[in-house]
């Protein structure tokens, strides 16, 4: 009964009769803006209740007696549950109404944040943050489904670049908000206050989002923009079965596998500084808790202009996302070397170099997700993006456990060397994607 009720609740909205052409011309731009704005704000809000742990992990260690390895274990189970959920929930999202699916995910993650802040048990923290990771896996797939249905292939890189800034806005504010709340009321408030904001966000999404254009009486976006590849209109609008989603569009797609494995190492690089950056500069560079929040803000906001620029460039050069991603990884390696060699006392330089990392790491994060839509159908975007994202969060899990263990047992120099290796591996793999373009 529960499964049937949930399936019915999440089912895609039915198609409505086609509106007159004049109404189509008036309504389409409004709905497109609403979809982009709502998914942007919703995903940014999700980061407030996902990335808040890193900002107060050191304070929790002091209050609860946790070690870096214990914190790393919490981050690991979260990354694993998120990666698996992003893949599984991606396939569910491809056959669900995002107006209900996405608010439900944000509501669940808000409740789990309240629970996390209210307990002082390591075992419960492991379980609750793993469940939070699973609930967070419900957030990206409906965004991908929505953008895939409301924006066409010729504008995909630019639109996803704009939307992807939500990562930076939410991720940057998460550190500042969590650090501010913890400094004022204690580490527990770093989970209560963002949880309240997520509840408001869930209500906003339920009001603002819509399902496909056809659900509100509009034609497919390819028809609206006259951007259909010849002979593909009917197949693009067919819902796909589970077997077709997983076999045809995932398992037999060698390019998708290449991007997925590359994403593993890109996420090691990305989250090495998001998960451990505040901890690193507070431990090695003797920064304060608010300095750690500012460092995360620099890392996240550094990616905003570059994401917009690189998304636009990738469209202008025929959708060669792998080429642009590769060119972004090289300066990241140089910035990490600079952070490693910079002695304590020059926090301005560490913050600047973290901004450089953010400037160049977020375009690959965005472009590898866009490649999922490039290489599949818009009816399979959640599943394909979830597959690439699953490898990414396996990378996050590997760095959370591995870097935490290295920090405790071998020191922070070994942590930086491991980051060098991951960055180099991403560069090598992306070299094989240099000529890959969106499929016809």
List the helices and strands and how they pair.
Layout: H1 2-10, H2 21-48, H3 52-64, H4 68-93, H5 98-118, H6 122-136, H7 140-150, H8 156-185, H9 189-208, H10 221-224, H11 233-236, H12 242-251, H13 254-283, H14 289-301, H15 303-316, H16 321-341, H17 347-374, H18 381-409, H19 412-431
Question: What does this protein look like?
Answer:
There is one protein chain. This protein is mainly alpha-helical and 440 residues long. It has a single domain, classed as MFS general substrate transporter like domains (Growth Hormone, Chain: A). Helices cover 79% and strands 0% of the residues. The N and C termini lie far apart (42 Å).
Along the chain, the helix and strand elements come as: HHHHHHHHHHHHHHHHHHH
Average pLDDT score: 83
Q: Which percent bin holds the helix content?
A: over 70%
Number of beta-strand segments = 0
Uncertain stretches: 230-236
User: What's the domain count?
Assistant: 1
For the record, give the distance between the C-alpha atoms at the N and C termini, rounded to a whole number.
42 Å
Q: What's the Cα radius of gyration?
A: 21 Å
Secondary structural class: mainly alpha
Q: What is the CATH superfamily?
A: MFS general substrate transporter like domains
Overall outline = globular
Beta-strand proportion = under 5%
Class in CATH?
Mainly Alpha
> Per CATH, which architecture?
Up-down Bundle
Separate helix tally: 19
CATH fold topology: Growth Hormone, Chain: A
């Amino acid at each position: 009964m529960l499964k049937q009720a949930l399936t019915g609740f999440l089912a895609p909205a039915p198609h409505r009769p086609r509106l007159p052409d004049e109404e189509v011309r008036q309504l389409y731009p409004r709905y497109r803006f609403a979809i982009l704005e709502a998914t942007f704000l919703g995903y940014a809000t999700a980061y407030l209740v996902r990335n808040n742990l890193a900002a107060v992990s050191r304070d929790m260690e002091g209050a609860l007696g946790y070690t870096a390895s214990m914190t790393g274990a919490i981050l690991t189970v979260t990354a694993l549950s998120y990666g698996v959920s992003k893949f599984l929930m991606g396939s569910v999202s491809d056959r669900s109404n995002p107006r209900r699916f996405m608010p439900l995910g944000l509501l669940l993650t808000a409740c789990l944040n309240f629970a996390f802040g209210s307990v002082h048990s390591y075992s419960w923290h492991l379980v609750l943050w793993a469940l939070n990771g699973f609930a967070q896996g419900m957030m990206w797939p409906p965004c991908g489904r929505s953008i895939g249905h409301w924006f066409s292939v010729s504008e995909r890189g630019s639109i996803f670049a704009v939307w992807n800034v939500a990562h930076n806005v939410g991720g940057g504010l998460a550190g500042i908000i969590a650090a501010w709340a913890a400094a004022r009321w204690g580490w527990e408030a770093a989970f209560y206050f963002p949880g309240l904001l997520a509840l408001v966000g869930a209500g906003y999404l339920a009001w603002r989002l819509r399902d496909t254009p056809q659900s509100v009486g509009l034609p497919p976006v390819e028809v609206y923009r006259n951007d259909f590849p010849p002979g593909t209109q009917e197949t693009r609008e067919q819902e796909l079965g589970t077997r077709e989603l997983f076999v045809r569009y995932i398992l037999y797609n060698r390019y998708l596998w290449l991007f997925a494995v590359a994403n593993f190492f890109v996420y090691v690089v990305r989250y090495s500084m998001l998960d451990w950056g505040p901890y690193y500069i507070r431990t090695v560079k003797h920064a304060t808790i608010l300095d750690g929040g500012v460092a995360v803000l620099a890392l996240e906001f550094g990616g905003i202009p570059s994401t917009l620029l690189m998304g636009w460039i990738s469209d202008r050069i025929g959708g060669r996302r792998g080429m642009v991603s590769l060119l972004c990884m090289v300066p990241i390696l140089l910035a990490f070397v600079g952070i490693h060699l910079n002695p304590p006392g020059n926090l301005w330089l560490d913050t600047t170099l973290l901004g450089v990392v953010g400037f160049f790491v977020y375009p690959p994060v965005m472009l590898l997700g866009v490649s999922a839509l490039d290489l599949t159908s818009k009816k399979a975007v959640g599943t394909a993006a979830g597959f690439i994202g699953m490898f990414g969060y396996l990378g996050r899990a590997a760095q959370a456990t591995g870097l935490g263990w290295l920090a405790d047992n071998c020191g922070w120099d070994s942590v930086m060397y491991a980051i060098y290796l991951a960055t180099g591996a991403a560069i090598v793999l992306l070299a094989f994607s240099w000529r890959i373009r969106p499929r016809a």
